[in-house]
Amino acid sequence: VPQGVIPFKSGVIFTQRARVEAPVSTILPTGSSSDLLLVLSLCSHRINDAFLFAVKSKKKKLQLGVQFVPGKIIVYVGHKRSVYFDYNVHDGRWHNMAINIRGQTVTLLTSCGKRRVHADLHFKKDEALDPHGSFLFGKINHHAVQFEGAICQFDIYPSAKAAHHYCKYLKKQCRQADPYRPNLPPLIPLLPRDPSASPSIPPRMEPSRQGLKNLTTAAPSL
C-alpha cells in the first residue's frame, strides 16, 4: 500500500500524504482514445478543490481529468478545456456515479442511470492519450492540494457502451458502502446551509481548512 493510503473493508482512504502516480501505458491500453467511461464510488472527507485524477502528456499538458470543487464536478478533456456539472461531492455522503465521455459530449449519470446530465464540449478534443504521459491520482501535480476521502471503486472502461447500466458494474461492497464507513472524526462543514449561497470557493477559504482535523492523525485508530 502506498504511503498515505489506508486500506479499510470496502476500499482505501487517501490522506494528505498520498502520492500515487503511474505511466499512462500501465493504466490504459496504448493508443487509447479519450472516449471512455468512469465508474466511481467514493466519499470525500475534506472540502477542497482537488482533482480526483489527472492524465498529463509527456510535455505536462493536461489531457484528461476530473476535479471536485464545492457544488460542482469539472471534467477536463484537454488543456484548459472543460465542462462542469452542478453536483456536490463534498457533503460527507457516499456517491456512486458514472462519467461518460464520448465524441463531443460528456454525461454525468447518477441513480443507476436514471438521472443524466449532458454537457457539450463545443470544440474538438484530442483523439488519443499520450502513452508516454503520466497518470496522477488525487491531484493535478505534486504541488497541488490532495483529494482526501474513501474510494470503494474507480474503474476506467475504454468503451462507453455500459454508461446507462453502470450500476451493473458496481462492486457489491460499494452498493453497501455506508455500513462499512470507517470510524473517522466528524468534519466541520465549511459550506453555508443557505440554498441561495454561491457554491464557488470563498477567496479566503484556506484559513478555514485549518479547522479540519488532519485525517493522518486518525490513521492509528483505524
From TrEMBL:
It holds the Pfam family Laminin_G_2. It comes from the Eukaryota. Residues 185-222 are annotated as: Disordered. Its main location: secreted. One of its GO terms (cellular component) is collagen trimer. It is found in: Secreted, Extracellular space, Extracellular matrix. Residues 211-222 have a biased composition (Polar residues). The keyword Glycoprotein applies. The keyword Signal applies. Keywords: Collagen, Extracellular matrix, Glycoprotein, Repeat, Secreted, Signal. Gene3D superfamilies: 2.60.120.200. Residues 2-160 form the Thrombospondin-like N-terminal domain. InterPro entries: ConA-like_dom_sf, Laminin_G, TSPN-like_N. This is Collagen alpha-1(XXVII) chain.
